[in-house]
Amino acid sequence: MKPKITFFIDFDNTLIDNDKVKKQIAKIISKKYGRNFTNRFLEINKKLRDEKGYVDFPATIAQIAREENKRSFSTNNPKVTHELHDLFHNFKFNNCLFDKVEEVIRHLATFGAVIIITEGDRHYQEIKIRNTGIWNLVVGKVEIPLKDKIAHFPKFLKKYPSDIYYFIEDKPEVLRKIGDLYGGKIKTIHVCQGHYSPICQMGIFDLTVKLIKDLLGISFPLKPESS
């Protein structure tokens, strides 16, 4: 009898290139509002991310809209707020997916259940995942805790009972914490791409691949020598 397998896949920087998202959004904002506005938008976004531990675009939009209203001596002009919200709702996030992401998800689904895990503002994250088409691809099996997704793994394990779990992630420190907490119960797969690619090291996790598309050549469950 084949073991029941579940794949937990991180979304940001594992399936989607967040640096590309940031650059393209900044380009659109700069074209409409100018460089100074864009720099301030990115500054506010970074400050709020550092304070909260997650990206909060609605709060970023609210703050810069307040600043714009103050600068233009307006107390209630919703134009900037509406325009920026429309930008995020209509942004083509699917153009920022890493190569062959959809094929990888379909490939993994032939071996077990695929669950997308991300963290941050639920409204924004859901828009992003839905707009990429990934939400429908995994039939809505998406978990979006506000922050600290590691702390939510007991709930995930209970919700998706399996014989074997794999966690696919780009951040090595997150994978190490999962390994420390769950040992062999959750197998760790490191995808060395994007922001954390310079610190890629082979042999530390159960499997290490350079790109997410490299998983297309892997069969599951993993054999001991796969790493």
UniProtKB/TrEMBL annotation:
Superkingdom classification of source: Bacteria
Designated name of the protein: Haloacid dehalogenase
Gene3D superfamilies: 1.10.286.50, HAD superfamily/HAD-like (3.40.50.1000)
Alphabetized SUPFAM superfamilies for the sequence: HAD-like
Xref: InterPro entries: HAD-like_sf, HAD_sf
